[in-house]
Structures are given as C-alpha cells and as structure tokens.
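Form 7-S
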Amino acid sequence: MTFQRARKKEQVEVRRQEILAAAERLFNEGGLEDVTFSRIAKDVSFTRQTIYTYFQTREEVLLALLGAKLEEFYASLHQMFPEGRLLSRKEFCQRVARHFIAHKETLRLFALRHTVLEENVRYENLVAFNRTMLEVFPTVKNILRRQCPSTDDATFDTFTFTMISYFASIYPILEPHPNQLKAIFEAVGSEVTMTPQECLEASIGLMAAALKFKKED
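Output:
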C-alpha cells in the first residue's frame, strides 16, 4: 500500500485519533512504560516518523489523550445529573462516586498530570489542555446551581477547585496494589472494611459540606 500524506483537516484528525487510540490501549494494558512511539507505530496505519508530525513526545500524546478523556467525563456528567431531577447531598455524593469509579482509567491518567504529563510538552499543548480542563467549572457550576440554588458562586468554585486536586489523587484508592494493601493492614493492625464506593462517598461528602442542597437527605 502506498503511503499518502494527510492533507485534509478530516484526514489529519483521523490520524490523530489513531495515535490516541493506540496510546490508550498501550497505557491501559501496560502502563506508562509501554507507551512509546515504536509501539504506537505498530498499531497505526502510518510510520513512526509520521507520528512526529502530530506529536513530538509520548507525553504530548498522553496529555492530548487525557484532554479527550476529560471531555468525555464532562459530557457524561450531564447525563448523571439531568435537568429537572433534584438530589439530596447523599444522593449527589453517591452519583459522583459512581461516576469516578466508572472513569477510573481517566483518573489513572490524570494522576500523572503534575509530574510526567507536564514534562517534555510544548507550552501551547499545556495551554490547550488547561483550557479543556477548566471546562469543568461551567459544567459543575450549572449542575450545582440546579441542585443548590441558594449557594453562592464562590462556594461552587471552591468546591470545584478542591475536586480537581482530589480527582488527581484517588486512583490508588480504586486500584490499590496488593502489597500496599497488605502493608496498610499490617500497619493499622486490622483490615479496612470500607469499599472504594463508601470511601469516595464519605470524602466527597466532606467537600460538599458547604453546599446547600434544595432537596434534604
């Protein structure tokens, strides 16, 4: 098959999505170390050298993948909290916890954001990613305005800022390493009985304490 350079905008986007799909599969199956341009090139319909037309480093690939996953995460939030349906604080926390668990691979990738994924990345890529990430503020604010109409915008923003930091740190709760669990149990002197869902609900509930939900528990 003769290789053809992508010239149309649609062709460029198709190739870009091929790269992201290959990187996602490699990351999900083997983690960060498995994501290399050589391995990506085995999965796509063009050469390794062509990948450099779209991304200069694997960190740029993974940062772009994370941006795409965050857009999916935000879109599905709207489905989790449809208009016209009021939830109590407890119900809200349960839904957020379930949503996090359903998107644990996004959480896994997001946990690398402040370390690996911000190294070896061009400045313009960081700007583009942060614009995507900050879309969470209007998304969450619109949801909270419906659920907590008497709460002020500053409280909404504080909650969202806190959730971003929380979002970056909770993957180990959902997928703890067996040795780490064993070490924790030994250090504590007993097994931890809370499920990941219960743990997430409790911690999200603490962060949501300042929100005034229209529907009472």
